[in-house]
């Protein structure tokens, strides 16, 4: 990471001594899932707990990929810088997701905290050594890589949708599926990103996203009880809209 970066100046960190991996509240849906107590201790020994504030850049595109991260609290947006200086959001991460996997020595994207976040940070070299020692850890990481590919394919499908209502409905369904996979229920989803971020991700204007969400709310398909949260009231209708059947 760049020395003197905003990230380095605002992150507080401490070794995970008082909060071992086995007590982590997202262990069951993260990299640590299904590891034995002994293996968890080994993973904990190379982990550092860090906290980042809202708006802080956690990794920068093309910086050396020296660390990997497990998101344990908060949410993150991923983005790439286009040649003309514009920013394209490519994804969102939530507790239990993994950050920083790189196919070469540099990060392929940047990541910024959408809200105050907590992460476990792993030195890449040490984690790679541990993967050789713990097959279950390697298998878990491969599964998470597969999930990343699925999410990338989902975004391609989202961008390929014809209308705004199809794109927004598909986006909400995607978040619902991710929430259900982790919590068992996908009716209430976290929506910490702003309308402009959603629009950037879907290839829509901020105004179009706001108008579409308002229409869904007026029809009773969704409700927005609080900022940062959305409740799906009619999953079947939302699915039909996403598939262009309504």
How large is the count of helical segments? 8
Taken from the alpha-carbon principal axes, the silhouette is globular
Tell me how many strands there are: 12
Percent helix: 40-55%
- Give the total of domains: 2
Estimate the strand proportion: 15-25%
Q: Give the CATH class of the largest domain.
A: Mainly Beta
CATH fold-level topology of the largest domain = Jelly Rolls
| Sheet/helix structural class | alpha+beta
Largest beta sheet: strand ordering: 1-2-9-4-7
SSE string, helix = H, strand = E? Answer: HEHEEEEEEEEHHHEHHEEH
Distance between the termini: 48 Å
Structural topology:
Elements: H1 6-10, E1 12-15, H2 37-45, E2 48-52, E3 57-59, E4 67-73, E5 76-81, E6 87-93, E7 98-99, E8 110-113, E9 117-123, H3 124-133, H4 135-160, H5 164-183, E10 188-190, H6 195-202, H7 206-218, E11 222-223, E12 229-232, H8 235-242
Antiparallel strand pairs: 1-2, 2-9, 3-8, 4-7, 4-9, 5-6, 5-8, 10-12, 11-12
Helix pairs in contact: 3-4, 4-5, 5-8, 6-7
Describe the structure.
The chain is α+β, with helices and mostly antiparallel strands and about 250 residues long. It folds into two domains: about 5-145, Jelly Rolls (Sandwich); about 155-240, Winged helix-like DNA-binding domain superfamily/Winged helix DNA-binding domain (Arc Repressor Mutant, subunit A). It is built from eight helices and twelve strands. It has helices at about 5-10, 35-45, 125-135, 135-160, 165-185, 195-200, 205-220, 235-240, and strands spanning about 10-15, 50, 55-60, 65-75, 75-80, 85-95, 100, 110-115, 115-125, 190, 220-225, 230. The chain has a five-stranded antiparallel beta sheet. Helix 3 crosses helix 4 (about 135-160), helix 4 runs antiparallel to helix 5 (about 165-185) and helix 6 (about 195-200) packs across helix 7 (about 205-220). The longest helix is centred in the middle third of the chain and has 26 residues, at about 135-160. The N and C termini lie far apart (about 50 Å).
């Amino acid at each position: 990471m760049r020395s003197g970066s905003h990230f380095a100046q605002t992150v507080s960190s401490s070794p995970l001594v008082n909060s071992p991996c086995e007590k982590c509240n997202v262990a069951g849906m993260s990299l640590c899932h299904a590891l034995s107590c002994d293996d968890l201790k080994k993973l904990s020994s190379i982990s550092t707990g860090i906290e980042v504030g809202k708006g802080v850049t956690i990794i920068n595109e093309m910086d050396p990929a020296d660390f990997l991260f497990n998101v344990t609290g908060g949410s993150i947006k991923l983005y790439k810088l286009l040649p003309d200086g514009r920013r394209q959001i490519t994804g969102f991460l939530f507790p239990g997701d993994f950050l920083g996997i790189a196919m070469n020595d540099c990060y392929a994207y940047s990541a910024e905290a959408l809200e105050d976040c907590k992460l476990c940070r792993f030195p890449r070299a040490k984690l790679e050594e541990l993967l050789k020692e713990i097959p279950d850890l390697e298998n878990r990481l491969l599964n998470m890589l597969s999930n990343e590919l699925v999410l990338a394919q989902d975004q391609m499908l989202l961008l390929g949708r014809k209308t705004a209502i199809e794109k927004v409905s598909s986006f909400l369904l995607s978040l619902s599926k991710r929430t259900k996979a982790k919590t068992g229920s996908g009716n209430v989803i976290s929506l910490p990103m702003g309308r402009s971020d959603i629009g950037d991700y879907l290839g829509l204007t901020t105004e179009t996203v706001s108008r579409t969400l308002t229409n869904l709310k007026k029809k009773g398909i969704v409700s927005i009880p609080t900022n940062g949260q959305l409740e799906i009231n009619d999953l079947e209708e939302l699915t039909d809209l996403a598939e262009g059947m309504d």
